[in-house]
Amino acid sequence: MKRIFIFILIPFIWVACTQNQNNQEKQGNKEDKQSQKEVEADIKASTRIREGQKVPEFTFTTTDGKELTTESLRGKVVLYNFFATWCPSCMKEMPALQNQVWQKYGNNEDFFMVSIGREQNMKKMETFKKDKGYDFHFAPDTGRVIYGRFAEKYIPRNVVVNKEGTIVYQNTGYTEEEFQNMMDVIDEEMGD
What we know:
The protein is α/β, with parallel strands linked by helices. The protein is built from 5 helices and 7 strands, in the order αβββαβαβαββα. The protein is globular, with a radius of gyration of 24 Å.
């Protein structure tokens, strides 16, 4: 009798455990989606710029000693990339900036790209650029003075500005799909 009871009880226990696991997975997926929505809302709330507005005015100095302003870059399509050397997503994005953007447009006088190191000093930017072998421009933003004009938090962050000085694209984070979207915008602005 005990054996029959155990054989009957085992399938019920298995079904109950399976349902509990499925419920936990569904709850986890729901929490992940909710968490993702919260992050997206926080990114939007912490962003101080919008597509269609003029790029904020600022001055920066590149690692090769050039002092530039947003005004001096009018007439060019500009990609501002905000990053930090400690940021894993930023480090994934850097080779794509070099190999896809810079190799395609780096020699075009109508294009300018700079990676601005949030909370990074000039020495760190010079060393990083040299050690990694990147050819494009870098500039420090030690106190988040430049970054603060664009957002409060979250990197990597890319901003594409057209030749008239208007923001035509912005994104936070790095995925290959979103990077391709940015490339499409740059290609369109460059007439390719």
